Amino acid sequence: MVTNENRRILLINPSIRSFFNKNFNILPPLVFGIISALTPKYWKITMWDENIDNDSEFGFDYDIVAITTNTVNILRSYELADIYRAKNIKVIFGGWHSASMLDEALSHADSVIIGSVESEWLKFLNDFENNEIKKVYKEISQKYEFIKADNSIFKSKYFSTAVETSRGCKNHCKFCGIHINGHQAYKRKPISLVITEITEADSDFIFFLDNNFFGGDYDYLEQLFNEMISLKLKKKWITAVSVNFFNSQKLIKLAAKSGACLLFVGFETDSFKTLKYLGKENVKSIGSKNNNIFEDYRKIVKSCHKNGILISGNIIIGFENDTEEIILNRMFFFKNLKLDSCKSVILTPLPGTAFFNEIINQKKLSELIFPNDWNKFLYIKNVIKHKNLSSEFLEKNVIYCNQTYFKQSLMKTVRSFFILKSIKSSAFFYYYLKNFANYESNLLNKLFYFFLGNNFFK
Ligand code: SF4
Predict the structure, then answer these.
(1) 37: which of 24, 150, 284, 367 fits an S-S bond (Cβ 3.0–4.6 Å)?
(2) pLDDT given for residue 180 in this prediction
(3) Is residue 129 domain-shared with residue 193, that is, in the same domain?
(4) Nearest CA to ligand 1 atom 1
């Protein structure tokens, strides 16, 4: 019998080892900090991050197992859910994949949360305590309030602290999973709450885990950066921004002063027309005045470097009108931009997105069998029928380009350290490379160990 004294929840972040490095420990699964803060104290919470924890420690002594899902980890999520349900433990899913493939998810879980965990988690717990859980907990109003995450649950196992300043996005890029059913609302977290989380962070490194940290909110970011500067928080941070962030020199300077060391930008393509097709907000500020996208992107890179910030780009291959020649030209274009790191991926229609529906409606999705074929949605496999391109070309070239044109080298990494001019910022960048780009150097390991000690080898 479940009593108040022995109620136990296991939170699982399933493995994404097929996607990133085997020890993906740069940032914690932020949603678990929120669940921990929401849950009444008579529940004992255990967190299992399969990407870093030993698999055999966790056992089956739980009342509830909550699993955070995305397309990259979904097969492992289903596998784990089936194991726990076979032991009569209730399983609940959250995250984008389960929200967009509801029927499929419900064949492996007892319940699914669609929308923000802040508004639905306590309803689920309450129903569990009354033995009347529902299959779907769907946020209706999207009037959730941000709360302060309980980061103590992460036990300082991660290199950085994940902090949200917003959720959702005002833009509507058609391939992006942000606007799937139940996840549409855009909200900005109160600055006071963000500052508290940064101040209390047990790491010197902050990963702002927003979908679009910029969000067009000039005033908000100006105030946030100014507070970080005046409080002398001295944290180093990285995040993702859309290209229109770089329209404001004032913001770039304040970002640098407040500790920015690396910005991720989804450049996606060198074609103005394709940006427009994708619904990228970029088109309003890029390539429209002088019709020279390279010049505009190059200015962004230079402006980052001038201010001591690194820039990492994401590019996509496999658009409808792409040919082998267009793709090779795109690779040269981005190689010549002199980004500090760059990754190319194959255009992949994530379930629940406008792009996925378009591909289905146009009967362009390859013959796939779900759920097993979700393991092809890793951005290095082609799942779309193209008129000009073979899957073989795309799959061969995405790997080839990442391993040649965009390969990280010691020289390139050291050049980036000269731009940053800070050991701490350089350590953050190098840790990012270890996690996201599978790049490691014995020499740099020794160097950072010398400066930062054991903390560097979490
Ligand atoms: S700007 Fe980024 S987060 Fe926003 S819709 Fe586009 S891809 Fe998604």
Answers:
(1) 150
(2) 73
(3) no
(4) 171
Ligand 1 atom closest to residue 240's alpha carbon, by position in its atom list: 2
Q: Is residue 444 part of a domain?
A: no
Q: What is the distance between the alpha carbons of residues 147 and 37, in angstroms, rounded to a whole number?
A: 8
- CA dist 159 → 25, 256, 435 (Å): 7, 21, 10
- Considering its fold, how many domains does the chain have in total? 2
pLDDT digits (tens, 9 = 90+) for 121-179: 999 999 999 999 999 999 887 788 999 999 999 998 999 999 999 998 888 888 888 77
User: Residue 69 in 3-state DSSP?
Assistant: strand
CATH code, 39: 3.40.50.280
Query: In a mutational test of the pocket of ligand 1, which residue from 164, 175, 176 has the highest number of ligand atoms less than 8 Å from its CB?
Result: 176
Residues 112 and 63 in one domain: yes
The answer to the question of residue 416 being in a domain is no
Residue 213 structural domain: 160-407
Q: Mean pLDDT over all residues of the chain?
A: 91
Is the confidence at residue 184, as pLDDT, over 80? no
Q: List the one residue out of 148, 258, 242, 140 whose CA is nearest residue 200.
A: 148
Q: Which residue's CA lies nearest to atom 8 of ligand 1?
A: 176
The strand pair at 260-268 and 310-317 is best described as parallel
The reply to whether 124 and 187 lie within a common domain is no
The CA 1 to ligand 1 mean position distance, Å, reads 46
Domain presence at residue 57? yes
CATH of the domain at 164: 3.80.30.20
Q: Could you tell me what percent of the chain has a pLDDT over 90?
A: 74
Rounded to an integer, the average pLDDT of 187-192 is 95
Q: Which atom of ligand 1 is nearest to the CA of 172?
A: 5
264 and 368 share one domain:
yes
Residue 36 falls inside a structural domain:
yes
User: 316: Cβ below 6 Å to ligand 1?
Assistant: no
Q: Is 80 in the pocket of ligand 1 (CB under 6 A)?
A: no
Q: Are residues 173 and 86 in the same domain?
A: no
Report residue 261 CA to chain centroid gap: 17
Overall pTM > 0.90: yes
The finding on whether 244 has its CB within 6 A of some atom of ligand 1 is no
Distance 212 CA to ligand 1 centre (A): 6
Same domain, 223 and 76: no
- Ligand 1 center from residue 85 Cα (angstroms): 35
Distance CA 153, CA 391 (A): 43
Please give the number of the atom of ligand 1 that sits closest to the Cα of 280: 6
